[in-house]
Amino acid sequence: MEPLLTLERYLPYRLSLLSNKISETVAKTYKDKFAISITEWRIMAVLGEYPGISADEVSLKTHIEKSLISRAISKLLKRKLLCRNISEDDKRRSELVLSNTGYEVYEEIVPLSLEYERKFLASLSQQEQEVLSSLIDRLSQHAESISL
Amino acid sequence: MEPLLTLERYLPYRLSLLSNKISETVAKTYKDKFAISITEWRIMAVLGEYPGISADEVSLKTHIEKSLISRAISKLLKRKLLCRNISEDDKRRSELVLSNTGYEVYEEIVPLSLEYERKFLASLSQQEQEVLSSLIDRLSQHAESISL
DNA sequence: CTAAAATAGTTGCTATTGCAACTAATGTCA
DNA sequence: TGACATTAGTTGCAATAGCAACTATTTTAG
């Protein structure tokens, strides 16, 4: 009856704790300051980068399931943080952009986000940060190939 | 209206994607092969390591909220994967252990888990794996200090 | 010794999740 | 052209999450 696994040292578990801790901290700030969820923020973030894309493209870029995207977009539309057009050439598709208000909020949240990233990485040297970044890229790419 | 943030390159986001991808893959296997959720598995894993601890200690060790722990334990008790005693010296506390069946399942899942860990890390050299492990430790420790 | 505070665990309630079914529009191919 | 498949987006529903309130004990202080 020896323990066969040390959960505390199990890498997927540790990665999950770290990621959740960071996400929760950031989420709390977005929620407290802007009443916006992480899902909503990710939608706004990709629309800041790719104005005019469809809900489906938002789903692909954020890796968020399309029903969540649909509901989050409704909410953001109600709050007038987004604008939606129906595409001329394909009436199923929407064309989404940040509204003026939405862009103002975006401009406020972005520096906050970057500051969080900086803070979380602050215990690592510049070089270590680059190593980490590259390791994550490689692991992500590899993980894709495993979980087909 | 320039994009101010590249979500794809935002580290907390990338970390979250990686962690979710791994967790989902592992979770699917546990669910398909053993009809066990990640929460249930984490409970079993800490009980394999620390037989006889209380629900509260399980909650602390897994970082899972105590109502989730309570409900998951009920389920595991119904399936006879755990045994529960009321502590003699403190009648509020439970003393939880894996049942014989529970331990058998544990013994089956552990090698599977370790194999997943190995597979996900397989694209890194031994040395890189150690670097990653140490970076995660340092980031986790630092993240704790930030989000007080 | 006793009243108040703290702790272990359970349960109620609401919000979020995510799959699947559905509608509407477009694409494919005989 | 016209049936069939595919795609974009929405909605229904069941499962899960997590906060807060509650019960039952135990601990602490006066």
Layout of secondary structure:
Two copies of one chain form a homodimer.
Chain A lengths: L10 H24 L3 H12 L5 H8 L3 H13 L3 E5 L7 E5 L1 H22 L4 H21 L2
Antiparallel strand pairs in A: 1-2
Helix pairs in contact in A: 1-5, 2-3, 2-5, 3-4
Chain A binds a DNA duplex (30 and 30 nucleotides) through helix 4.
Pfam family, one (chains A, B): MarR_2
Keywords (chains A, B): DNA-binding, Transcription, Transcription regulation
Organism (chains A, B): Agaribacter marinus
Biggest sheet overview of chain A: 2 strands, antiparallel
CATH topology of the domain at 32-117 in chain A: Arc Repressor Mutant, subunit A
CATH architecture of the domain at 32-117 in chain A: Orthogonal Bundle
Let me know the average pLDDT of chain A: 96
Distance between the termini of chain A: 35 Å
Helix content of chain A: 55-70%
Domain HTH marR-type (chains A, B): 8-141
Pfam families (chains A, B): MarR_2 (PF12802)
GO molecular function, one term (chains A, B): DNA-binding transcription factor activity
Protein name (chains A, B): MarR family transcriptional regulator
Summarize the structure.
Chain A has 148 residues and is mainly alpha-helical. Chain A has helices at residues 11-34, 38-49, 55-62, 66-78, 100-121, 126-146, and strands at residues 82-86, 94-98.
Name some characteristics of this structure.
7% strand, DNA-binding, MarR family transcriptional regulator (chains A, B), two-stranded antiparallel sheet, 148 residues, HTH_MarR-typ (chains A, B), Arc Repressor Mutant, subunit A, mainly alpha, homodimer
